[in-house]
Write a structure and sequence with these properties.
- The protein has 2 domains: 45 residues, Orthogonal Bundle (Arc Repressor Mutant, subunit A); 143 residues, no CATH class.
- Helix 4 packs parallel to helix 8.
- The chain is an all-alpha fold.
- The termini are far apart.
- The protein has 10 helices and no strands.
Length: 205
């Protein structure tokens, strides 16, 4: 059974799907979650706090998906293609993930006040929300570091600097497809796979 905080975040996300953030009312979010408005304020402090927690949770959901993609079987290039495909799918299905990845925040969305360094933490996303939300550069760095840790196990002895650049290039290639999808007939996954195969990185060849 979801906690009150999770229910409130779910209710806020559902409201955001049909209303711009300025039109989302705290009283309606509380009612949809089945809790009192006081409980909502106790949990998040303010509407800004609720917005930060909501954005932070979407960032963590995205990063957990990155971890799942990296856990898939296959060579380094194939695993990075999986990360790129997850990035594309997440950006299409979540306006918050798209804004996090591109830095393009419309007036319909909660304003990202402050920035936070993305780190692995046992503390729930909501509890860390007051520290701010990650910007695109921090999110890319988090994906790169996760990919580097995963691929280092597969290509022992590889130059970590070179391998890190490969990982970041793959992430940024995926991001470029979020902003401007390729028009080639092979599709986005095929395009990304073809480009990665041509990168001059002997360590992951």
């Amino acid at each position: 059974m979801p906690t009150a905080r999770e229910s409130l975040l779910d209710a806020a996300l559902s409201a955001l799907a049909v209303l711009p953030w300025p039109g989302v009312r705290m009283v309606d979010v509380a009612s949809a979650a089945g809790v009192s408005r006081q409980t909502l304020y106790n949990e998040f402090g303010s509407k800004d706090g609720l917005g930060r927690a909501l954005v932070r949770r979407e960032a963590d959901v995205y990063l957990r998906g990155v971890d799942r993609a990296l856990a898939e079987c296959g060579g380094p290039a194939e695993r990075m293609v999986q990360v790129a495909e997850w990035t594309l799918g997440s950006a299409r299905s979540s306006v918050l993930v798209r804004a996090l990845l591109t830095g393009c925040w419309s007036e319909r969305l909660p304003a990202p006040s402050g920035r936070a360094v993305v780190a692995v933490s046992p503390v729930p996303a909501q509890r860390r929300a007051d520290a701010g939300v990650p910007g695109p550069a921090e999110l890319v760095a988090a994906v790169r570091d996760r990919a580097l840790a995963a691929l280092e196990q597969q290509v022992p002895g590889a130059d970590p600097v070179e391998l890190g650049r490969y990982c970041e290039t793959a992430v940024r290639l995926g991001l470029s497809c979020v902003v401007a999808p390729p028009v080639r007939g092979e599709g986005q996954a095929g395009y990304i796979r073809a480009v990665l195969a041509r990168l001059p990185v002997r360590a992951v060849g």
